[in-house]
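Check this:
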Amino acid sequence: MSTPFATADLIDAYGDELASCELQFRQFGGVRAFFGPIQTIKCHEDNALVKEVLNQPGDGRVLVVDGGSSLRSALMGDMIARAAERNGWAGVVINGAVRDVAELATLSLGIKALGSNPRKSAKAGAGQVGVNVAFGQVVFTPGAWLYSDEDGIVVSAKELSLP
């Protein structure tokens, strides 16, 4: 979604109604600020569910992937990210690693992750979709709203009126 906003302004306006993620992410996508309703995946070093979900219509949602902070293998690369862009996802936040970083930066997609690793992940389909995931002192609930920019990530139980 392209409505301009700043997470710092949202915190100033909404205060304790918002959760602020303490985990420090790096920006990898071509879209630096993004927001939308949350969809979740919990998986560990296996990206089969990430691929499956991002190949479905995104409808402006943000996929939050809890990869357990593992940097041993990438949970998303350029092919899966291109599918997310093509299918209308607003962004992807990965508590783990990505790969194909130069290509990710060219996409019209918000992408945040802890880091990068060229190693492929497993493809067994292990994990869960649509469950609450927690990291950085925030619980990410499917259907809640995530707002992300250069300052960080905030989460609201409902869609916010942007200033």
Summary: The chain has one domain: 7-155. The CA atoms of residues 93 and 112 lie 5 Å apart. The first strand starts at residue 19 and ends at 20.
